[in-house]
Design goal:
Elongation Factor Tu (Ef-tu), domain 3, 2 domains, alpha/beta, binds flavin-adenine dinucleotide, 5-stranded parallel β-sheet, Rossmann fold
């Protein structure tokens, strides 16, 4: 099936806290963009510099995934929040310096990634790359929902005002050095006091968080498949294609362990 590529322009940028940039994209190509995909993702296409073309792949661009924070079908505006982690990757580099009027191509969207509405207790865990999707999830929970959100941010200033049910507690965990790992977040996750008879776990972030969460949620808590979303959004020391390879290898090893019980 042909991939629908949409050509958009940046119409607004805004710094959120210290390490995030909200970027608004607009264009007529959004006229058939589906509604209600917030928390799902789009893939942005960053043209490779000419000397890099053909090095690891035949594609002339790098693809990176970003969560749909909001979409306004009337104004044809798509809003994405970018963690700025420096110039080492094409997405963060682009987001750091982007200006109104700049162009970008996107593919997608992928489906919304929302916690089941049927759970009686929710656990959200993630770092700043997962914050846009967790924020959407919290906004969409029913007002009487109960739960806990463990949110790792790089600095106090990165705290965001979240629209959420009063029964969902938010714990902010400051990690100024995410490239040294997320041990405080993993510790907080390991110490969670689970509640409810039908809990839902929504967890995404760095590779080590996903590795720990898979063991805890799938194997120790044995949550059913439709009561969890566990995903790796990035990996220390690996670009996005490298992260995907590591993620696939971990999932394969996990399945083999499960079959052969080693
Ligand atoms: C479904 C999905 C949704 C996502 N949504 C968002 C979102 O809404 N907002 C958002 O900011 N990110 C989001 N991410 C994560 C984002 O796609 C990755 O962080 C991606 O690697 C960034 O691409 P890059 O070109 O900047 O860096 P890459 O070229 O992929 O990597 C270059 C270097 O940067 C490092 N790096 C990558 N990500 C980070 C990071 N977060 N912190 C520190 N170092 C990093 C890598 O380890 C590598 O050494 C999402 C990922 C997925 C899979």
């Amino acid at each position: 099936m042909a991939i629908n590529i949409r050509k958009l322009k940046v119409t607004d940028t805004k710094i959120l806290g210290s390490n995030m940039k909200r970027i608004t994209l607009h264009g007529d190509d959004l006229s058939d963009f589906p509604e209600n995909q917030e928390s799902g993702y789009v893939k942005l296409r960053f043209p490779k510099v000419s000397e890099d073309i053909g090095k690891n792949t035949k594609k002339p661009f790098d693809l990176r995934s970003y969560t749909i924070r909001s979409f306004d079908p009337e104004r044809l505006e798509l809003v994405l929040d970018f963690l700025l982690h420096g110039d080492s990757g094409p997405a963060s580099k682009w987001a750091s310096s982007v200006e109104r009027g700049d162009s970008i191509e996107i593919a997608g969207p992928g489906p919304a990634i929302l916690a089941s509405p049927d759970a009686d207790w929710y656990l959200f865990t993630g770092d700043m790359t997962a914050l846009p999707a967790i924020a959407v999830n919290l906004e969409k929970l029913s007002p009487e929902s109960q739960g806990l959100a463990l949110l790792e941010i790089n600095s106090l200033e990165d705290k965001q005002e979240l629209i959420k049910p009063s029964g969902v507690e938010v714990k902010w965990i400051i990690n100024p050095e995410p490239l040294n790992g997320c041990s405080d977040l993993i510790n907080a996750l390991s110490e969670v006091e689970w509640k409810g008879n039908n809990p839902y776990a929504w967890i995404a972030g760095e590779f080590e968080l996903m590795r720990f969460a898979r063991q805890l949620i799938k194997h120790e808590k044995s949550l059913p498949k439709d009561s969890m979303y566990l995903s790796c959004y990035w990996k220390i020391g690996a670009d996005d294609p490298g992260m995907k390879k590591a993620k696939a290898a971990l999932i394969l090893l996990d399945s083999l362990k499960n079959i052969f019980k080693f």
